[in-house]
Structures are given as C-alpha cells and as structure tokens.
Amino acid sequence: MRPAIFPLLPDPGCLLLLLVSWLFNPARSEITSLDSGNIDDILNNADVALVNFYADWCRFSQMLHPIFEEASNVIKEEYPDKNQVVFARVDCDQHSDIAQRYRISKYPTLKLFRNGMMMKREYRGQRSVTAIADYIRQQKSNPIREVQDLEEISSLDRSRRNIIGYFEQKDSDNYRTFERVANILHDDCVFLSAFGAISKAERFSGDNVIYKPPGENAPDMVYLGSLTNFDLIYAWTQDKCVPLVREITFENGEELTEEGLPFLILFHMKDDLESLEKFQQEVARQLIGEKGTINFLHADCDKFRHPLLHIQKTPADCPVIAIDSFRHMYVFPDFSDLLVPGKLKQFVLDLHSGKLHREFHHGPDPTDVAPGQPIQDLASSPPESSFQKLAPSEHRYTLLREKDEL
Predict the structure, then answer these.
(1) Which spans does this entry mark as compositional bias, Polar residues (predicted)?
(2) Is residue 19 part of a domain?
(3) Is 389 found in the same domain as 263?
C-alpha cells in the first residue's frame, strides 16, 4: 500500500504577511509612455493629464521617477476612471520630435494638459508625492463659483478680472463650452455662473457672458459671439483675462523668463496707477504689432530694487522704463518721452536691430551724429541682465544649452 501524500500548507504567519503586504501595497499604477503614435489620442481623451518630459541620463529625472509614480498611485485611487486623470511620460531622447513640439528646455519638465490642450503654466511646485497629488486635486476642482443671488455680483472683488456667465440651465452646450474655457483660464480670471430664475434678469436676449474688468467704474464688456464656438469664446476670454501688459512678480518670474522673449518693463510705485495707465495705453497704441516678439511688463519699484540698482536707479527715480534682453539691460532715456509718438516703438525696434547693443559698446551710430560732429568710439558696458536670475535653477533642472540637443 502506497503511503498517502499530503500537500504542504503554507505557514499561517506567511499567509498573514502576504495579506498585509497586499493590503498596504496595492498594484502600482502604470505610467503611460507617450510616443508619436499614441500621444494625441491619449491626451485628447484625458480630462487632465500630467506629462513628465524626462531624459534617462538626467539625475533630476531619475530622482523624480519614483515620486511621480507614487503620486500617480495616490490619485488613481481617488479618480479610478482612466480618462479622468492620466499620468504620462515622454522620453525626450527617444522622441525628440515631441520634445521640440512642446518646447522642452530643461529636464524634467511637468506639463499639464486638458483635453489635449497644453496649459500655459507648467507644474513648478515641490517635487513630492503630497504636493503633486494636491496639485492634481486642485486641477480637478470646479473652477466656476455658482452665484445664488445676483446681489453677490455687486460685491465682487473689482481688483480681479471677473468673467460671469448667465445661463438658463447648467445641462446645456453653452455652459459646457463656458466650463471648458474656465478650466483653462481659471488662474487668470475669476469665473462665476448663474442659472434659471436667478439669471433671468441678465438673459434678456438669451444666455449671456460678460467681463467685468478691474476697477470700480470700469464698464462691463459683453461677449457677442456664439456660445458653443469654443475657439471664439476662448480667444475672447483669453484677451480679457491675460492683459497685454502683465505684472512681473517673484512668483511668476521663472515662468515669464521661460517664454524666451525680452522684457519691456515699467518700474513704478505700487500706488502710481497713472504712470501704469499711460504705459498700457502707449504699448497698445505703439507696440501691439510687437506682441510675440517682446513681453510687456510692469514691476513694483520697491520689490524690484535690485534690478533698478543694476541700471543705477532707485525707487525715487520711478517711473522708469527699461528693456532686459537677458544679456543686458537698457534704459529708456526719459519717461516723459513715452507720449512722444513712435518714441517707445523706436526703442523696441532698436533692440531688435541690435542698435541698443552697438551704441552701449561703441557710442551713437554714425547716422545719429549731427553733421560736422566727430565720430567717437565710446567704449561702454551695459548692465548685465538682472531678470535672467529668475530663470529656472540649475540646482533643480538639467538646463539644455543648445536647441539642437533635442
């Protein structure tokens, strides 16, 4: 008679250990790898996507990988639908075409996408699981505050830019388009909405969207286009929410320098709104055609004393206009010349032509010297760029020096 064979049972302690391990270490979520074949489909179908642009040889990229994966695990538990939130990555060495498409200039870069559209502001917060997860939760929160009484409109903060939508019902194509715009531009404007009986007084000709600009007495502006045409209402809202002349702060300085455009800056005292208004008017009048070649900014003289000292100015000299080319700083000769037709525009054109740089090193161009006056080669050294110091830190990123590195 053959002896009976009994299977060995696992030790109860081992079973308990396996169970605890399974409970506290759930299956790790997979980071989606993007390439030319899948990137558009995946991003277009994602409500929110956070994409890590990295290179394997970059030590900062290597440090971020486990943090990014753990943040993805945390968020996947809260938003299990695969299209609600996508964590993805692009190997920029393997897919240089994608890196060039999104203008990657440093590793690692975390960019946010909504329904396939890349947001202007990338993630620049702390590289930690908690901070990244909190950032995604914030991006998933409703960007529109629903108004319960039109009296709330009269008490709005008029130092902010407010966009208000009045709709018959929330479940409508008009509101869905408005909501999509708000998701993209909520960092630049305050978005509010009112529905049904509450909004009826403002819907005399149908659903309506208005813009309330900063200033207690500033008149409202009404959107007159189709409320279901996303491109039209987005362009209109962006024009209202993102001013031609923006304020530069220490918080947004890195973001502005990464746009890669020289700065034309008005330094003014915080309460000197008259000088700011004149500057804004002249920029709009003389330089609207230069939008895209230079950034128009204004800065608080007290906060930015260091750049002023760089050009041998103090807050007592404000208002002062200057250009920072990221190589040197150049001063507009006299603020009172701002109102001289074409003077500010010529200052910018002289930057583009290289004339400002030449004259700082060699004195006036021969064509600018009065007849009979000797031409002198006046060697000088313009102040170095001050705002370049606000650019991304080499202690946080691997900065790409050459564009063809991608």
Answers:
(1) 378-388
(2) no
(3) yes
Q: How does DSSP assign 15-29, residue by residue?
A: HHHHHHHHHHSPPPP
Going by C-alpha positions, the residue among 154, 141, 201, 199 that lies closest to residue 172 is 199
Answer whether 129's CB lies under 8 Å from 67's CB. yes
Task: Please check whether residues 284 and 215 belong to one and the same domain.
Answer: no
245-247/221-222 β-pairing: unpaired
pLDDT, one tens digit per residue, over 43-76 is: 999 999 999 999 999 999 999 999 999 999 999 9
**Neighbouring C-beta atoms of residue 12, cutoff 10 Å:** 8
Q: How many domains does the chain have?
A: 3
Q: What is the CATH number of the domain that holds 195?
A: 3.40.30.10
The number of helices, as runs of H, and strands, as runs of E, in the chain is 14, 17
Q: Are residues 111 and 156 in the same domain?
A: no
Residue 39, Cα to own-chain centre: how many angstroms? 22
Q: Write the pLDDT tens digit of every residue in 266-306.
A: 999 999 999 999 999 999 999 999 988 999 999 999 999 99
Among candidate residues 223, 241, 259, the one where a domain is terminated? 241
386: β partners: none
159 and 40, same structural domain? Answer: no
Cα separation, 191 vs 174, in Å, equals: 15
pLDDT tens, 78-98?
Answer: 999 988 999 999 999 999 999
Residue span of the structural domain in which 217 resides:
145-241
Write the burial class of residue 43 (CB in 10 Å: 0-12 exposed, 13-18 middle, 19+ buried). Answer: buried
Q: Exposed, middle or buried: residue 211 (CB in 10 Å: 0-12, 13-18, 19+)? A: buried
Domain match, 226 and 279 both:
no
Measured CA to CA in angstroms, residue 98 lies from 116, 167, 254 at distances of: 14, 40, 23
Question: φ and ψ at 330, to 5 degrees?
Answer: -125, 135
Q: Dihedral of CA 280/117/138/134: which sign?
A: negative
Q: Which two tokens stand for residue 189?
A: 């404007």
392: left (phi over 0), alpha (psi -120 to 50) or beta: beta
Domain end, chosen from 222, 241, 260, is at 241
Residue 322 resides in a domain = yes
Note the pTM of the prediction, 2 decimals.
Answer: 0.71
